Amino acid sequence: MELVELVSTSNMADIAFIKSLLDSEDIPYLAHGEGFHSVRPLIEPVRFLVAESDLDRARPLIESSHLSSVPFAHLDDGEKL
User: Fold this and answer.
1) What confidence score (pLDDT) does residue 80 get?
2) For the domain that residue 61 is a member of, what is the CATH number?
3) Is 81 part of a structural domain of the chain?
4) Residue 47 forms part of a structural domain
5) How many whole angstroms separate alpha carbon 64 and alpha carbon 5?
């Protein structure tokens, strides 16, 4: 399974919000760096990765939300990992 980055953020409120959005739609994700975020929040943002096959469902959820930490939160262009 190919994972692609959906969004990354250093804002704790955004992290919780993104998790709730993805959970509400049963979209599996990996919150890469979440364990290290409290140690280096501005250096290591949390990167939300989803399966490439789920990107079409996940992207509209993030695009329609108003993340509070711009420019620290950004929607990725779907770069494959």
Assistant:
1) 45
2) 3.30.70.790
3) no
4) yes
5) 17
**Structural domains in the chain (count):** 1
Q: Which residues contact 36 (CB under 8 A, 6 or more apart)?
A: 44
Looking at residue 80, the DSSP 8-state letter turns out to be B
Query: Cβ atoms within 10 A of the Cβ of 3, count?
Result: 19
User: What are 79's two structure tokens?
Assistant: 């770069």
Non-local CB neighbours of 53 within 8 Å, separated by 6+ positions: 1
- Give the pLDDT of residue 71: 38
Residues, the chain: 81
Q: What is the pLDDT of residues 2-50, one digit of tens each?
A: 999 999 888 888 899 999 999 999 999 999 988 765 666 567 788 999 9
CA 71 vs CA 24, 27, 75: distances in Å: 25, 25, 10
13 is a domain residue: yes
CB 51 within 8 Å of CB 10 = no
